[in-house]
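Can't paste images in this forum, so I'm doing it all in text. The chain is below; anyone willing to post the predicted structure tokens underneath?
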Amino acid sequence: MTPMTDAERVLGQIKRGEVIAGPEGARRIAARHEAAYGVVWRRRAPAAPAAPPTPDAAWADAVQSLTRTETTGDLAA
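Text version of the structure:
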């Protein structure tokens, strides 16, 4: 008898229904967790910034940070 690879073992478990996988499996697992623990995963998504910072704005912030640190002795955060 030759040993079975992990991939063969897992694929066999999925085929026999011992393991659930894929989108339907994810939905079933989520439904089971929601039934057990309530609605804990539904949270509002964080608000996206109005517009992504431009490279110029990022550069200006970096220069300002260095200037502020050198002139006031602040520690960079």
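Residues 55-72 form the longest helix (18 residues). The two ends are 61 Å apart (CA to CA).
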